[in-house]
Amino acid sequence: MAPGCHSVLPGGAVRAPQPGRQETEIEMSETTTPPQTTGQPQTPPLVVNIQYVKDLSFEVPGAPQVYTQLRAQPQVNINLDVQARRVHEGQNVFEVSIMIRAEAHEAAAQSGNGQSAAVPPTVFVAELTYAGVFTLSGLPDNAIEPVLLVECPRILFPFARNILSDVTRDGGFPPVLLQPIDFVALWQQRRAQAPGQTGTSAVA
Question: With bands split at pLDDT 50, 70 and 90, how would you rate the model's confidence at 113?
Fold first, then answer.
């Protein structure tokens, strides 16, 4: 073989002559190390089993006249609450529900002295309970309540928001678009109202 030439041997070996030294074989082979698995795969701390509409109602007391008499976009008052309960005793499977009530009234008319006139009539009432079943695994006791009353509602909220928007639009009114909810503040407010409760006491 001419100086400086390389020859490839079967199996991927390369023979490279070097001046003043005997030829050496350098193995060039790719090895793939299989991933190491230790024990059983870890279970995620929060699993969404199912989401569903638990209750939904939409009422227009003044229909059909209200559709022709309404002169401006109604004023909508929103009430929202979160509840959680254990599905089966002794298991970390919980149902978390977001309960939303949207009640719309005609814009209040002003009397001559600047005071609001009588209570304006109700335009529509929408009530929605949107729920999900969640499995918690490996969480310390002091983390269960904030996960159920903060993290789980955050998962459910976008779906509840879309449903409420659709039902009010399909009811013949401008869609009600909920603003983002600070579930941390909502949870802290609940704890402040019941300072004696701890842990999962808010979770039936």
Answer: low
